[in-house]
């Protein structure tokens, strides 16, 4: 780990801001930013957090900045099942249940699935058991031939969406394990595949298309991502809820029809 000044400079450059840009946003002088980055001024904990806030540094990395500056970490990291997160966990559970009969799940910064609603379960029926051993990784589950990949009609599109999202994530917050996942599953597609994905990537911030062949039907789904707005815990800062919606009337009917809905509960 470098000095706090070196780390702040890395985050500023990652955000493509000048020292003046950061100074204006944080309401300090550009000279002060320069002194902090070069180590000629030791920032207070409050100044570290002020700069980190303007740089949109994740809570996990804000703790690293504080440690580098000689201060204790400010943000706890507790499991989602911890008593201290009971209120947040209950809120997430309500979101998942409220989204039924449509699928929804919760995953962490490395795309490991933490929670699902009942509508997700049936799609796991044909998945290889080893892929369902915790931690279950959403990217691996979606792209592995022993996972959900055989069900996905537009697998190249889905891979392109995953690739774009993980690449943007790594550009924002580097992570060794996520980089390894990207290299394993996303950097190189199957032989003969089209890796351009430009049209899909351009749309991925608006709608995430996925066509699944299941129960003799083609289900067309798009998804949205929900995150906590003002988390003070690292776990909550890093979790997201992905909710899937029907993209056409036929798909909506499949999930709401009493016959198919009843078979999903068995």
Automatic annotation (TrEMBL):
Taxonomic superkingdom: Bacteria
Pfam families per record: HTH_31, MLTR_LBD
Q: Which PROSITE patterns match?
A: HTH_CROC1
List, for all copies, the residue spans of the domain called HTH cro/C1-type. Answer: 8-62
Instruction: Name the SMART domains for this protein.
Output: HTH_XRE
Record's InterPro entries? Cro/C1-type_HTH, Lambda_DNA-bd_dom_sf, MLTR_LBD
- SUPFAM superfamilies tied to this protein: lambda repressor-like DNA-binding domains (SSF47413)
Output this protein's name: Helix-turn-helix domain-containing protein
């Amino acid at each position: 780990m470098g000095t706090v000044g070196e780390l702040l400079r890395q985050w500023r450059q990652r955000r493509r801001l000048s020292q003046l840009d950061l100074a204006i946003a944080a309401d300090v002088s550009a000279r002060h930013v320069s002194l902090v980055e070069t180590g000629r001024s030791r920032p207070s904990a409050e100044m570290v957090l002020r700069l980190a806030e303007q740089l949109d540094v994740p809570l996990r990395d804000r703790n690293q900045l504080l440690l580098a500056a000689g201060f204790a970490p400010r943000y706890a990291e507790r499991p989602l099942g911890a008593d201290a997160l009971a209120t947040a966990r209950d809120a997430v559970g309500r979101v998942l249940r409220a989204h039924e009969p449509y699928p929804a799940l919760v995953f962490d910064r490395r795309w490991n699935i933490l929670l699902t609603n009942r509508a997700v379960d049936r799609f796991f029926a044909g998945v290889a058991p080893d892929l369902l051993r915790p931690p279950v990784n959403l990217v691996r589950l979606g792209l592995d031939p022993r996972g959900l990949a055989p069900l996905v009609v537009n697998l190249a599109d889905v891979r392109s969406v995953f690739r774009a999202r993980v690449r943007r994530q790594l550009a924002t917050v580097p992570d060794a394990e996520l980089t390894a996942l990207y290299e394993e599953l996303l950097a190189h597609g199957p032989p003969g595949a089209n890796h351009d994905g430009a049209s899909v990537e351009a749309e991925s911030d608006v709608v995430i298309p996925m066509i699944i062949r299941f129960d003799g039907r083609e289900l067309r789904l798009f998804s949205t991502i929900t995150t906590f707005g003002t988390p003070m815990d690292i776990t909550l800062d890093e979790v997201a809820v992905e909710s899937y919606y029907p993209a056409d009337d036929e798909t909506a009917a499949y999930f709401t029809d009493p016959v198919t809905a009843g078979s999903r509960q068995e």
